[in-house]
Amino acid sequence: MIMEKMRPRQWHGAHGGRAARNRGACRASCALAGGFSLVELMVVVSIVGILIVAMGFSFVGWRGKYNAESDINKIYVDLSNARASSMQTKSVHFAYMPIDNSVEYRVYIDNSPVPDGNGELEIADDKLVDNMSGDVLYDIEAQERKFGFTRSGLIFTTADGILDNPIWIRIVHPDGHKLYADIDCLELVSTRINLGKFDTDTEECVAK
Question: Quick one: fold of 39-207?
Answer without folding.
Answer: minor pseudopilin epsh fold (3.55.40)
